[in-house]
Amino acid sequence: MSHLVVSNVTKLYGASAALKDVSLSVGGQDYVVLLGPSGSGKTTLLSVIGGFTPPSSGRIHIAGHDVTDIGPAKRPTTTVFQDYALFPHMSVEKNIGYGLKLRRVPAVKRAEQVTRALDMVGLSGAGRRFIQELSGGQRQRVALARALIVEPEILLLDEPLGALDLNLRRQMQDELLALQRRTGRCFVHVTHDQEEAMALASLIVVMNQGHIEDAGPPSRIYARPATRFTANFMGESTEFSGPVTAPGIISTPVGKLPRAAAAETGMEATVIIRPENIRADGGGAVALGMARIAEAVFQGAHYRVFATAENGQVFKLRLPPAAAPKPGDSLTLSCGAEDLVPV
Amino acid sequence: MSYRPSTRTVAAGLYMTLCYVFIFLPVGVLVLFSFQSGNLPVPPLHGLSPRWYEAAFNDGRLVDGFANSLLVGGVSAALSVLLGFLSAFGLARYEIPGKALLRALIMLPLAVSYLLVGMGLLVSSAALGLGPSLITVIIGHVVINMPLAFAVCQAQLGEHQRRIESAARDLGAGTFRVLFGITAPMIAPALIAAFCLCFTLSWDEFLIAYLNTRFDVTLPVVIWDLLRGGLNPETNAAGSFIFLVSISVMLIVELFLLRKRRL
Known about the structure:
The complex is a heterodimer. Chain A folds into two domains: 2-232, 3-Layer(aba) Sandwich (Rossmann fold); 236-342, no CATH class. Chain A is built from eight helices and 19 strands. Chain A has helices spanning 42-50, 92-102, 107-120, 136-148, 166-183, 194-200, 218-223, 228-234, and strands spanning 2-13, 16-27, 31-35, 57-62, 65-66, 77-80, 154-158, 186-191, 203-208, 211-216, 238-246, 249-252, 255-258, 268-273, 286-298, 303-308, 314-319, 330-335, 341-342. In chain A, the strands form four sheets. Chain A has a six-stranded mixed sheet, with helices on both faces. Chain A has a five-stranded antiparallel sheet with strand order 13-12-11-14-19, with no helix packed on it. The longest helix of chain A has 18 residues, at 166-183. Chain B is mainly alpha-helical. Chain B has one domain (61-262): MetI-like fold. Helices cover 77% and strands 0% of the residues of chain B. Chain B has twelve helices and no strands. In chain B, helix 11 (219-228) runs antiparallel to helix 12. The two termini of chain B are 41 Å apart. The A-B interface holds A 50, 52, 71-74, 77-79, 81-83, 85-89, 98-99, 102-103, 132, 146-147, 150 and B 160, 163-164, 166-174, 177, 182, 185-186, 188, 263.
């Protein structure tokens, strides 16, 4: 059964719509990542789910209850804010225990739970310290502990890793995943970083201009994006365009290519392919023709290669370091039929 | 190599010194002659003695005036900060039609002369059948000081603070709890600074206090009366004491504001 159901939510600010008829259904154990560029409406959606922003129309259900008209205080959600929003005049343990205090949990029991929460986020013994003494990563952990201690049905995270440096961000990603598995709660996480989304999510929701472009597991979103926007946002790809000449076939500069999605004959259509799916060893079922390397950039695990065919078609692909590609080298390209994704 | 100041630097230093002498000489003279052992607070200085301080602290009018000033300053500053804080919070956190107008109205008393405020109060309290009293003075001081407290609080209630308040609401806090359990303690240094500012302004204020008091009067009014009786080192002692209280309170403000900046 779906744990969080967003039905036809629209949010208008004057004449402009921050959310346009958004519907979404999420399971109780899901790690959901709302992914999109700034202004895509992902933060507004999070704020609507958390109860901070009332939607102009549409309903929100959490665990079977309609919470649309319930404010953040009574909603079974808690939020980890981008700037953590810790209480600067309270110690770490008072910050973490605040939600329990409001729920009138007796002091002794509260202290036990706070100690357990501190252990859970790896801050054992830091309870008496003040917020100003903590590093960014530690503040992040306090914010997580403070939000999780009240056992919310859904934990909302608003770009929680944005302020951290790269190494710490990777580490916190692992910890967030572990925390989500251990607590068995639904996390909804907003980010504009598609690598972060793929590392964390069990369900990625790609947003653009106030609507959902695509929603699904990361592997599917990356390899088989539903729309061209998703395809571009999730990473590089090579596009082949041309008219549909027969059912399931489009005629492109590199030849006739299979296209799985139905489209009427004569219409313009596009297929895309991810760089790692273009083969230069001649082993693929679909031939893509010859191309000359225009540029090869070494990136550690692979070379990122731009190659151009004589008819002008540009290919973006990856070659192993052992291939030592140089500009001017000639490649015979091919791919598997299933790697050509209609968009 | 030894440093040799240029003529320009010397001239600038001299100019600055003159400015400070001009500003602080009267205060210095006032304080110096409060220790006069003679009977007049004018040169020559006959010798240093605390006798006029003893006289001042034994003068019933001065002591009563001191107590009244403390009362008026404390109550009016507390009211100013409370009202300023609440109005700043309301305007910063809620969508209210005519916000800019409301803000301008709150700040308006800053531009009105104390004479007008004092006369207005006198006339209105008389019309309401209330005689002049310390309560009228307190009201007058709230009128002139509340805009300052409002401005200080408003500067502290930004987006970061709003998210902290949201976090508290998210965890289950109601508006009252947020206001006095989160927002007020969070901006406590600013609230204390605003209180001290309002207190010193009330402590020094003469015009409104003079127009609106009869028998219970504040310290500046007592001193005014003393001065009308002629020059007397006791007045200097009382004035020096007021000055001491004022700068002490301002030092507290500085300490709190400086601490705030370091955070």
